[in-house]
Amino acid sequence: MTSEFRHLRACVIRLWVNSLQSPDLAYFQDMIRFNEAIDEALAESTATYAEEVNRSRDIFLAILGHDLRAPLQAVSMSTELLLRKAALEDDALKCAINIQPSTGHLAVMVGDLLELVRSASEELGEPTTSLGLGLFIVKEVVDAHQGTIEVCSSELDGTTFTVDLPRKV
Fold first, then answer.
1. Which of 118, 123, 128 is nearest to 61 (CA)?
2. Is 61 within 8 Å of 113 (Cβ atoms)?
3. Long-range pairs for 148-157 at CB < 8 Å and ≥24 separation?
4. Are 85 and 40 in a shared domain?
5. Rg (Cα) of the chain, in Å, rounded?
6. What are the backbone dihedrals phi and psi of residue 132, each rounded to the nearest 5 degrees, phi first?
7. Average pLDDT per run of 10 along the chain, which is 169 residues long?
8. Residues 113, 62, 150, 103: is their CA dihedral positive or negative?
9. Which of 37, 133, 147, 160 could form a disulfide with 142 if both were Cys (CB 3.0 to 4.6 A apart)?
10. Do 111 and 76 contact (CB within 8 A), yes or no?
11. Domain residue limits at 153
12. 152 and 162 in contact (C-beta within 8 Å)?
């Protein structure tokens, strides 16, 4: 994009110089003002373009992260259920055992992706859209089922919530 402005400037100056019959100080001042206007337009255009690229990237990453989270959670929970409940044959058991840590690694990557987008949004001063109701809703559901919630948090591993619900109330 900036090369187009440089080319435009060179063409206009070349045409302008060719049209001069006798150089005058006023002509050179006009050329200086023209160059300043082109430089200002270039700076504004480049800044606007960079902001739009960053905003588009952040939106794309946020959508990608959220769209990956749900199917990943389904795979993780299904694998855990298979390992707990099903009597799997050797090959199927090996597959389920291999799936479990892989989904954990993917969950960490998706979490990191969402954290990157969240921190970028905070740096830009954009307000967060979360109402903070998620844990409250989970607590109400767990209480209704007479279950328990455990929280384990460390700076290295982050925070893990474990929900236990009884089979029968």
1. 118
2. yes
3. none
4. yes
5. 30
6. 75, 25
7. 73 79 77 82 87 84 79 89 87 90 89 79 61 75 89 86 84
8. negative
9. 147
10. no
11. 132-169
12. yes
> 136 and 122 share a domain?
no
DSSP classification of residue 159: E
pTM for the full model? 0.44
Helices (H), 20-158: 25-85, 90-123, 134-144
| CATH number of 16's domain | 1.10.287.130
Whether residue 149 contacts residue 137, with contact meaning beta carbons closer than 8 Å, is answered with no
pLDDT at res. 148? 92
The answer on 124 and 150 residing in a single domain is no
Tokens read off for 118: 């969240």
DSSP string for 3-36: HHHHHHHHHHHHHHHHH-SS--HHHHHHHHHHHH
Q: Give the C-alpha distances (Å, rounded to integers) separating 24 from 16, 18, 113, 128.
A: 13, 14, 60, 58
Same domain? For 152 and 98 the reply is: no
Residue type, 106: L
Going by C-alpha positions, the residue among 25, 28, 24 that lies closest to residue 13 is: 28
Cα(158)–Cα(168) distance, rounded to whole angstroms? 32
Residues 27 and 14 in one domain: yes
Number of domains in the chain: 2
Give the tokens for residue 164.
């236990």
